[in-house]
């Protein structure tokens, strides 16, 4: 992997959906991976990754809880990073799916804080 990581747009990733002889690219945590040659080796079947080719597979990848071996293999398949604008879009989409409310200027999703105002009830 060259030290200067190439940036890709989500549209470029989407065109590599593994269908009709296209390459199979995958986004995980804002990094772009070419998993074309790994599909047949995947212990969880090629279909499971193919389903996510051309998409952001962060959630399914992390939900399975892959081992450090899997993470090492993943690193070896990295071809670049997602362009910043598309990183923000994907982050928002992931947050929306998991019910987290995002602040449009923040880098990371934040849980909406509860109001700290308390109500005092005066008796008597
Ligand atoms: C995003 C789509 C992916 C899904 C939904 C997925 C799902 C799964 C599942 C269900 C298994 C369990 C198989 C079994 O025990 O029968 C598995 C195992 C495994 N997967 Fe994936 N996987 C994905 C992507 C990847 C990628 C991109 C890599 C590496 C480049 C990878 C590497 C592995 C490895 C090495 C195992 C064996 C168990 C381990 O070491 O964690 N997977 N996967």
UniProtKB/TrEMBL annotation:
GO terms for cellular component: membrane. Keywords: Heme, Iron, Metal-binding. GO terms for molecular function: heme binding; metal ion binding. It comes from Anopheles darlingi. This is Cytochrome b5 type B. The keyword Iron applies. Residues 5-83 form the Cytochrome b5 heme-binding domain. InterPro entries: Cyt_B5-like_heme/steroid-bd, Cyt_B5-like_heme/steroid_sf, Cytochrome_b5. PANTHER family: CYTOCHROME B5, CYTOCHROME B5 TYPE B. The keyword Transcription does not apply. Residues 88-113 are annotated as: Disordered. Belongs to the cytochrome b5 family. PROSITE patterns: CYTOCHROME_B5_2 (PS50255).
